[in-house]
Every structure is written in structure tokens, then in C-alpha cells.
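Progress note, project year one: complex with zinc ion.
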Amino acid sequence: MVKYINVRSRARNEFIDITDKIQEAIKDEGITSGICYIYVPHTTAGVTINEGADTSVQRDIQAALSRLIPFEADYSHREGNADAHIKSTLVGISKIVFVEDGKLLLGTWQAIYFCEFDGPRHRRVAVKIVKAVKAAS
Ligand code: ZN
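Model obtained:
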């Protein structure tokens, strides 16, 4: 079964920490060991895992992406959000995280971020948690 996490972005470019919401979804499923798939069904957003303690890191990542992919350039896409589509492709729209002892197997400083590149919008993130199956002996 797929669970959806609703995300409300408030800026055009924004990283939103969704670690706790994903952890809640795992708890609801009651799975102690398995795999958690995180999937963003949007063309102008993404998902990344990076530093969660010092929020200046995510600001630096956003700034670096915007230097690399400016809002205005010689784009063919006429909707005015070509930069957001390109950022989505570079950052990616899915992640896989192991689940052990009922918890996301993340490093001490890691957090899972929904990456908004064309906000503000209502978004959703699909989460699928697959229980590990013991091999028959
Ligand atoms: Zn577009």
C-alpha cells in the first residue's frame, strides 16, 4: 500500500524536512525491518537526503542550484519554470532508505527533504514501506 504525505510549500524554492512524517508512516505500518521507498510524483520538485542539524546547508544547496540553473535563461519551455524542471531532474524524485528496528536507517546528521522548486504549492510525497521477508531455511 502507498501512503501519501501532504506538503505545503511557502516559497518558490524551499526544502521541507519530511523525516518525521515518513517515520510516522513507518510506525503506522508497524514494520520493524524493511525498505522505505520515497517518491515525488511531480515534475518541478524533488527529494534529497542531507544535513538536518544545520539548516544553512540546505540554503547553500538551494543557492548553488540557483547559480547553476538560473530562473531566466535561453529556455525553450514557455511555462516560465524550466529552471524548476531541470532542478527536479538533477536532484531526483526518489530515494530508498532502509528500515531497521522500526526506524529509518539514517546517519546522525541526515534528514529527508522534500525539495520545492516551483512553489508555493500543495504537493504530495508517496511512501511505500516493504517488509523484509525472512528467507526459508
Ligand atoms: Zn513547466
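The chain has a mean pLDDT of 96.
The helical segments are 19-29, 56-68, 82-91.
No further modelling is planned for this target in the current period.
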